[in-house]
Amino acid sequence: MNIEYRTRNFQYPIIGSYSFWEHLKTENSFFSIHYSLLMILAILTFPSCSAKTSPPPTTDSSAYELIKSIDIKSKWIATDKLQQLYVITIDNEVIKYSPEGKELFRFSNNTLGDLTHIDITNPFSVLLYYPDFMTVYTLDRTLNKTGEFSLFDLNLTDVETVGMSNDNNVWLYDLVFYKIKKINRNGEVLRESIINLSNEFESPLQPNFILEKENWLYVNDPNLGILVFDIYAQYQKTIDIKKLTYFQIIDNQLIYKEKEQLKAFNLKSLSTKIIDLPGGVSIENQIAIQKSKLFVRKKNGVEVYSF
Is the whole model's pTM more than 0.85, yes or no? Predict the structure, then answer.
């Protein structure tokens, strides 16, 4: 499958671009010498700046090892960058497990209707969303409540989903003004789209999933694809993968389910690979990947695999 990007025709200046530095080097030999020394020092001092996630197996299902089965009925799971598992039960309770599948903490609220969304971008500040009452909760790492605010009180309506920003604020789509916005808990708009997004697409934007990852904001619309915004809320392009409800982004790979297969789309090379699954795991199961573990939500339980 060939996946295409659809981009806007404008560009933002990148002050830190390669050409900018090259210009300074050619204009100023003194700067060039010091630039070279600094680069050598940086390479020697920081041989690796980030820990890479092991890619899931793409050809061999035998590479998986089942390490834990959790007997629980759930409607959703999520995993954080520490490989911790969060389970939303059919009774809207949130249960947090260690990477090995040991129960750690619980949180429950049955007064706000259906809990439909959990964002664990920051494992120390968990975001929950209850759309029936348009209420956002935040929890600490032990699942104790740290904050609550109503989108109704902020004069927002019909917000289907929200996402946590890297600075612990909230991303959402404003259906009244047709703009992506980042707001704080007081309702102050910190960032918003300049353009009216209703004029950009052939059908109205109806996001069902929002994820900020590595200074990019991914807004999923099942009919339009995955819309990509910069951290200033400005639309950049569309990834032509449709009919999704959920995806992950791990080391520049977009993990998603399509046509009975789990796939990894490389955001840099634009290539797509099929991810093999453990025996007995169906693509109909919800699947989450985090570093060297694969989590599978089944009808009557959750399975944790290592690879």
Answer: no
